[in-house]
């Protein structure tokens, strides 16, 4: 452990980790109402005046890339595809020197239409959320009958060259946990890279229950009923997903086991919310305001300094197993993946 926050260079924390992967939430709004994320009526959305404008987002991403050593930028939400200025934001970030790798986490609705423009603007790849292949079950889980749109979005992303196209699936006990092999069969048939994500305590309703969470061990056991899984020889590094070769490879499947196999020790993520707050962790209960300083005229060096100081205070891990664990008040839909 080193003594004080760095006064220049990268986003280092007191545990020696360096954040190079910036997740930017472009909106807290979404066009789906997933039961494990928000109530049917939606949420009290972030007030408009508090939301960062397109130029403000590009400026802060620029500070991260040019002054803080960020090399990966992932746009998230809510649902980032509903942000009107998305293509322009991607193009401006792609023009940064050094150029970061740019990805997007989306529910896929409208992606078939937007994929060519996003690719042309500089988007490199996408992660699409898909928890079921059953149209009725999809409508129950998301409260919208839009499965066909998501499947169309996946195909549109692949056709536009936004590859590898990754699928994020959350399994819930007694809801869709019977679909693990089917989802993998689907991904293999289309050349998509599937990762299962353990459900995390980040829902707006604070209804998360460890007993209904499907664990990594259970997911792997379910897959092994049909597939031969062998450990992936590729270096994992700070990647959230643990991966396996399927039937000898080269196809892979991944599991992001934040709860039962936490990977916080190698975490390289930092987050910017749609209203200009720095979150050092998905589960952070404290945030640092950059919007105020930015609008008060702070220069890029000052914004960078504040970001370094915030990162320095990052906790060792999410603390979900800690009896004193407190779920963040900010819901997942306003944090982003
Ligand atoms: S829970 Fe927090 S510290 Fe752990 S890997 Fe996720 S963002 Fe990083």
What is the level-2 CATH architecture name? Alpha-Beta Barrel
Give the helices and strands as they follow along the chain. EEEHEHEHEHHEHEHEEEEEEHH
What fraction, in percent, of the residue positions are helical?
A: 25-40%
Ligands (ions, cofactors included):
iron/sulfur cluster
Structural class computed from helices and strand pairing: alpha/beta
CATH homologous superfamily label: Aldolase class I
| DSSP strand count | 14
The CATH topology is given as TIM Barrel
Q: For the residues shown, what is the average pLDDT?
A: 96
Assign an overall shape.
globular
Q: What is the tally of helical segments? A: 9
Q: Main sheet?
A: 12 strands, mixed
Low-pLDDT parts are none
Write down the CATH class: Alpha Beta
Total domain count: 1
Q: Strand content of the residues, in percent?
A: 15-25%
Evaluate the radius of gyration: 19 Å
Measured distance between first and last alpha carbons = 28 Å
Widest sheet: strand ordering? 9-10-11-8-7-6-5-4-3-12-13-14
Describe the structure.
This protein is globular. It is of the alpha/beta class and 337 residues long. It has helices at residues 54-67, 86-94, 111-121, 135-142, 147-160, 180-190, 216-224, 291-295, 300-312, and strands spanning 11-12, 18-19, 21-25, 72-76, 101-106, 125-129, 166-170, 193-197, 229-231, 242-246, 252-256, 269-272, 277-279, 288-289. A twelve-stranded mixed beta sheet has the order 9-10-11-8-7-6-5-4-3-12-13-14. Strands 1-2 form a two-stranded antiparallel sheet. Helix 1 (54-67) links the parallel strand 3 (21-25) and strand 4 (72-76). The two termini are 28 Å apart. The protein has one domain: Aldolase class I (TIM Barrel, Alpha-Beta Barrel). It contains nine helices and 14 strands.
């Amino acid at each position: 452990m080193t003594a004080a926050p760095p006064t220049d260079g990268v986003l280092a924390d007191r545990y020696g980790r360096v954040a190079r992967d910036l997740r930017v939430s472009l909106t807290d709004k979404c066009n789906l109402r997933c039961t494990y994320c928000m109530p049917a009526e939606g949420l009290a959305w972030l007030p408009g005046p508090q939301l960062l404008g397109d130029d403000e987002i590009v400026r802060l991403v620029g500070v991260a890339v040019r002054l803080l050593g960020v090399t990966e930028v992932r746009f998230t939400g809510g649902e980032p595809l509903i942000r009107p200025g998305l293509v322009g934001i991607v193009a401006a970030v792609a023009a940064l020197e050094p150029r970061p790798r740019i990805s997007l986490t989306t529910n896929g609705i409208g992606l078939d239409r937007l994929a060519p423009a996003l690719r042309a603007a500089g988007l490199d790849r996408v992660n699409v959320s898909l928890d079921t292949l059953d149209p009725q079950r999809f409508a129950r889980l998301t409260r919208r009958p839009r499965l066909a749109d998501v499947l169309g979005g996946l195909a549109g992303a692949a056709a536009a060259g936004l590859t590898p196209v990754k699928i994020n699936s959350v399994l819930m006990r007694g809801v869709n946990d019977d679909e693990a092999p089917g989802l993998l069969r689907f991904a293999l048939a289309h050349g998509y890279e599937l990762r299962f994500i353990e459900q995390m305590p980040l829902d707006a309703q604070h209804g998360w229950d460890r007993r209904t969470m499907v664990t990594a061990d259970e997911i792997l056991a379910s897959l092994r009923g049909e597939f031969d899984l062998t450990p992936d020889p590729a270096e994992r590094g700070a990647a959230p997903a643990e991966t396996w070769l399927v039937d000898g490879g080269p196809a892979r499947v991944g599991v992001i086991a934040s709860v039962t196999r936490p990977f916080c020790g190698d975490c390289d993520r930092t987050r910017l919310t749609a209203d200009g707050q720095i979150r050092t962790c998905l589960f952070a209960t404290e945030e640092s305001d950059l919007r105020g300083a930015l609008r008060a005229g702070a220069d890029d060096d000052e914004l960078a300094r504040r970001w370094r100081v915030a990162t320095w205070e990052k906790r060792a891990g999410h603390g979900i197993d800690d009896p004193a664990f407190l779920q963040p008040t900010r819901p997942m839909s306003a944090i982003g993946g």
